[in-house]
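$ run holo --ligand "adenosine monophosphate" --emit tokens
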Amino acid sequence: MTLFSKIIAKEIPADIVYEDDDMMAFRDINPVAPVHLLLIPKEPMVNLLHVEECDGIVLGKMMTKAGAIAKAEGLDDFRIVVNNGAGVGQTVFHLHLHILGGRDFSWPPG
Ligand code: AMP
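-- output --
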């Protein structure tokens, strides 16, 4: 069981900003931008290399909801990041979208 499963189960507290039957969004405990949310599926998925065709329904719902969640934080411009694998910085192996905003971002990302 990952840390995020414990947050979903409300065994570990989090600053939850959105929740429905399929997903939850909460504030990152170590924000790297003025707004830094994590949007996760309630069904645990390790990362994008471990998803099934049927997971597409929830993943699609998450992408559809991400804009409204960002907008509710006052963001029109925001960046969504998925760290897929330890080599690019994934530390929690429960798929999550970082929703980042409130400052400038460079491109290409570091
Ligand atoms: P990643 O490194 O892409 O796997 O992202 C994991 C994120 O989870 C990091 O940005 C951490 O700061 C964040 N994180 C770790 N523990 C918690 C927690 N208890 N509540 C909220 N965010 C957390």
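-- notes --
The mean pLDDT is 98.
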